[in-house]
Amino acid sequence: MSQVNISAKDKLDDPFYRYKRDRVLISTSERFGGLTTIENWSTLCKQLKIQPQQLQKFFSKEWGCQVDVNGKIKKKLLRDNIETSLQKFTEQFLLCPTCKLPELLNSHCQSCGNGPKK
Ligand SMILES: [Zn+2]
Question: Any idea which fold 3-109 has?
Protein backbone atom coordinates (compact mmCIF):
# COMPACT_ATOMS: atom_id res chain seq x y z
CA MET A 1 0.00 0.00 0.00
CA SER A 2 1.29 3.45 -0.84
CA GLN A 3 2.17 5.72 2.03
CA VAL A 4 2.36 9.43 2.58
CA ASN A 5 4.49 11.52 4.89
CA ILE A 6 3.14 12.64 8.23
CA SER A 7 4.33 16.19 7.80
CA ALA A 8 3.63 19.76 6.87
CA LYS A 9 2.56 20.30 3.27
CA ASP A 10 5.93 21.59 2.12
CA LYS A 11 7.62 18.39 3.27
CA LEU A 12 5.17 16.01 1.64
CA ASP A 13 7.44 15.19 -1.28
CA ASP A 14 10.53 14.27 0.70
CA PRO A 15 11.12 10.57 -0.09
CA PHE A 16 13.61 10.17 2.78
CA TYR A 17 11.29 11.48 5.46
CA ARG A 18 10.89 8.73 8.03
CA TYR A 19 7.41 9.39 9.39
CA LYS A 20 4.86 7.71 7.15
CA ARG A 21 1.27 6.65 7.23
CA ASP A 22 -0.95 4.75 4.84
CA ARG A 23 -3.29 6.60 2.56
CA VAL A 24 -6.88 6.75 3.79
CA LEU A 25 -9.01 3.85 2.64
CA ILE A 26 -12.77 4.30 2.68
CA SER A 27 -16.00 2.66 1.75
CA THR A 28 -19.31 4.46 1.47
CA SER A 29 -22.90 3.45 1.67
CA GLU A 30 -26.25 5.08 1.02
CA ARG A 31 -27.74 3.69 4.21
CA PHE A 32 -29.05 6.10 6.84
CA GLY A 33 -28.72 8.97 4.39
CA GLY A 34 -25.06 8.37 3.67
CA LEU A 35 -22.26 6.69 5.55
CA THR A 36 -18.50 6.69 5.17
CA THR A 37 -16.28 4.13 6.83
CA ILE A 38 -12.56 4.65 7.14
CA GLU A 39 -11.44 1.07 6.57
CA ASN A 40 -7.92 1.48 7.89
CA TRP A 41 -8.90 3.68 10.83
CA SER A 42 -7.07 1.67 13.53
CA THR A 43 -3.93 1.37 11.42
CA LEU A 44 -3.94 5.12 10.83
CA CYS A 45 -4.39 5.86 14.53
CA LYS A 46 -1.48 3.56 15.32
CA GLN A 47 0.72 5.13 12.68
CA LEU A 48 -0.14 8.61 13.88
CA LYS A 49 0.33 7.50 17.49
CA ILE A 50 -2.99 8.92 18.61
CA GLN A 51 -6.03 7.73 20.49
CA PRO A 52 -8.99 7.07 18.16
CA GLN A 53 -11.05 9.44 20.33
CA GLN A 54 -8.79 12.35 19.38
CA LEU A 55 -9.46 11.89 15.70
CA GLN A 56 -13.11 11.09 16.31
CA LYS A 57 -13.60 14.42 18.07
CA PHE A 58 -11.76 16.38 15.41
CA PHE A 59 -13.64 14.76 12.53
CA SER A 60 -17.08 15.21 14.03
CA LYS A 61 -16.36 18.90 14.56
CA GLU A 62 -14.88 19.19 11.09
CA TRP A 63 -17.93 17.72 9.37
CA GLY A 64 -20.63 18.56 11.88
CA CYS A 65 -21.87 15.01 12.07
CA GLN A 66 -21.59 11.90 14.15
CA VAL A 67 -18.35 9.95 13.95
CA ASP A 68 -17.88 6.82 15.96
CA VAL A 69 -14.73 5.56 17.59
CA ASN A 70 -14.23 2.98 14.85
CA GLY A 71 -14.07 5.50 12.04
CA LYS A 72 -17.67 5.39 10.83
CA ILE A 73 -18.90 8.79 9.71
CA LYS A 74 -22.58 9.65 9.31
CA LYS A 75 -22.07 11.52 6.10
CA LYS A 76 -21.04 10.62 2.59
CA LEU A 77 -17.53 11.92 1.99
CA LEU A 78 -14.83 11.54 -0.60
CA ARG A 79 -11.43 10.15 0.17
CA ASP A 80 -9.93 13.54 -0.66
CA ASN A 81 -12.14 15.19 1.99
CA ILE A 82 -10.71 12.88 4.59
CA GLU A 83 -7.11 13.18 3.42
CA THR A 84 -7.43 16.97 3.60
CA SER A 85 -8.89 16.88 7.10
CA LEU A 86 -6.31 14.41 8.27
CA GLN A 87 -3.62 16.72 6.97
CA LYS A 88 -5.21 19.59 8.88
CA PHE A 89 -5.33 17.48 12.04
CA THR A 90 -1.68 16.53 11.58
CA GLU A 91 -0.54 20.13 11.21
CA GLN A 92 -2.64 21.32 14.14
CA PHE A 93 -2.01 18.57 16.67
CA LEU A 94 0.84 16.30 15.68
CA LEU A 95 3.61 18.46 14.33
CA CYS A 96 6.01 20.32 16.56
CA PRO A 97 5.61 24.03 15.78
CA THR A 98 9.38 24.46 15.80
CA CYS A 99 10.90 21.52 13.93
CA LYS A 100 7.71 20.33 12.19
CA LEU A 101 8.26 16.71 13.15
CA PRO A 102 5.42 14.58 14.55
CA GLU A 103 7.27 14.06 17.83
CA LEU A 104 4.94 15.77 20.26
CA LEU A 105 4.25 14.03 23.54
CA ASN A 106 2.04 16.01 25.94
CA SER A 107 2.90 19.16 23.98
CA HIS A 108 6.62 18.55 24.38
CA CYS A 109 8.68 17.74 21.33
CA GLN A 110 10.74 14.58 21.68
CA SER A 111 12.92 15.64 18.80
CA CYS A 112 14.00 19.24 19.46
CA GLY A 113 12.85 19.71 23.05
CA ASN A 114 10.40 22.48 22.30
CA GLY A 115 7.70 22.80 24.93
CA PRO A 116 4.80 25.07 25.78
CA LYS A 117 5.87 28.60 26.74
CA LYS A 118 5.31 29.39 30.38
ZN1 LIG B 1 10.44 19.89 17.63
Answer: Defensin A-like (3.30.30)
